[in-house]
Amino acid sequence: MSWEGWTIFAGFWVVFVTTPGPNAVNCIQNGMSLGFRRALWGVAAILTQATLFLMLSAVGISALITASPTAFLIAKIVGAGVLIWLGVRGWMRARLPIRAEERPASGIYTRAFLIATINPKSVAGYLAAFSQFVQPDVAIGQQMWVIVPTALTITALSYCGYTALGAQLGRAALSAIANTLIRRVLAGCFILYGLALGATAIR
User: Domain spans of the chain?
Assistant: First the structure.
């Protein structure tokens, strides 16, 4: 990959991972509920998913799934349902006191990984990256040595930033009213993402 190609790819990836979506919302929620250090398990899950999607995209799996209307429709519907469920659950629990010790690291990791995997923005972004930036006349392995470290570094910085933002909001939201309001806004975001995904699936 040329220097010019790398700068264009890096710019695209910055926009891709910093645009607020379900992953960002989950990182903010984790930061608020668990504090920065424990919430980093969620960032680790996102990086795992990113690595997996990069590898799958490299061998054309994501393109194959998108080429199958039925498989893509099922993925959209399942993803929409899970996001809506997470939003409704978060809304109903917004008034409950947060007990970080009830959420082990494995639970934080698994939830974040599932959210990242069903996120339609992920599929679209990885497909866009590989259709636009991978050079067909250059060995894919050679290009991955540039693409993967760049993508994972930018992804880590972005979601660590969202997690830090959530941790700061958690410290700032000292009153029960403010805490409940912020948590319900974030839960509402999950519901909206799910409804939007479901609407695209229906269309």
Answer: 3-68+97-174
